[in-house]
Amino acid sequence: MIEVRNLTKSFDGKTILHDVSAKFETGKTNLIIGQSGSGKTVLVKSIIGLIRPEVGEILYDGRDIMKMDSSQIKELRKEIGMLFQGSALFDSETVLGNVAFPLTMFTNMSAAEIHDRAQFCIERVNLKGADSKYPSEISGGMQKRVAIARAIALNPKYLFCDEPNSGLDPRTSIVIDELLSDITHEYNITTIINTHDMNSVLGIGENITFINKGYREWVGDMHQIYHTSNEALNEFVFANDLFQKVKQYVITHEHH
Ligand SMILES: Nc1ncnc2c1ncn2[C@@H]1O[C@H](COP(=O)(O)OP(=O)(O)OP(=O)(O)O)[C@@H](O)[C@H]1O
Question: CA-CA distance, 58 to 61, in Å (whole number)?
Answer without folding.
Answer: 9
